[in-house]
């Protein structure tokens, strides 16, 4: 996933992107992620701004039942390529890439954006019942045989 600075027209244009990145967040967090979409480019004096929302897709582990499932999520992208490589400029939350000309490899910046937008506790479905806290049975497949009356006696006085 590259941006060619020499061929990017001055003004506003678009950059279609498609490819895979490795998030590097462990096996449970979409190790191979497919990114696709289009970024809006603004080629200004000494800088190129790239922004937009990409679609990410990969496998994840459910935070409730630990089942592996396919996860799709949106990846907001906001980055800047500065052509003056000797600058002290910062743009707050915008990712900065310093390169004067040629092709810019956006893979690392897009990997960061995808990792930051990855859901903290992904679930396979909204009504996932998870695992039993006592025996560890998957409550989505069948109820467990644990006693339902196991409760903390300190809560008995509450209505």
Q: What is the fold's blueprint, element by element?
A:
Layout: E1 2-4, E2 11-22, E3 32-44, E4 47-61, E5 68-82, E6 95-98, E7 103-105, H1 107-117
Parallel strand pairs: 5-6
Antiparallel strand pairs: 1-7, 2-3, 3-4, 4-5
Mind explaining what this structure looks like?
The protein starts with a strand and ends in a 42-residue tail after the last helix. The protein has one helix at residues 107-117; strands spanning 2-4, 11-22, 32-44, 47-61, 68-82, 95-98, 103-105. The chain is built from 1 helix and 7 strands, in the order E-E-E-E-E-E-E-H. The protein is mainly beta and 159 residues long. The protein has one domain. Strands 2-3-4-5-6 form a 5-stranded mixed β-sheet. The protein has a two-stranded antiparallel sheet with strand order 1-7. The radius of gyration is 23 Å and the shape is elongated. The mean pLDDT is 84.
How far is the first residue's CA from the last residue's CA?
Answer: 59 Å
The order of strands across the largest sheet is 2-3-4-5-6
Which sequence of SSEs, written as H and E, runs from N to C? Answer: EEEEEEEH
Determine the strand fraction and express it as a percent band. Answer: 35-45%
Poorly predicted ranges (pLDDT <50, ≥5 residues)?
none
Number of helices: 1
Portion in helices: under 10%
Q: What's the rounded overall pLDDT mean?
A: 84
Structural class: mainly beta
Summed up, the domain count is: 1
What features would you highlight for this structure?
single chain, 159 residues, mainly beta, five-stranded mixed sheet, two-stranded antiparallel sheet, 7% helix
């Amino acid at each position: 996933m590259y941006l060619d600075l020499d061929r990017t027209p001055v003004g506003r244009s678009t950059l279609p992107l498609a490819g895979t990145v490795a998030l590097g967040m462990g096996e449970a967090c979409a190790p191979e992620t497919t990114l696709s979409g289009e970024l809006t480019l603004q080629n200004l004096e000494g800088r190129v701004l790239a922004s937009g929302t990409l679609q990410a897709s990969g496998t994840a582990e459910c935070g409730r039942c630990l089942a592996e499932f396919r996860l799709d999520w949106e990846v907001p992208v906001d980055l800047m390529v500065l052509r003056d490589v000797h600058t002290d400029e910062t743009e707050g939350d915008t990712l900065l890439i310093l390169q004067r000309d040629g092709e810019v490899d956006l893979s690392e910046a897009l990997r960061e954006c995808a990792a930051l937008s990855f859901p903290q506790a992904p679930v396979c479905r909204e009504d996932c019942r998870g695992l039993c806290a006592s025996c560890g049975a998957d409550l989505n497949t069948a109820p467990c045989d644990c006693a339902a009356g196991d409760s903390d006696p300190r809560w008995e006085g509450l209505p």
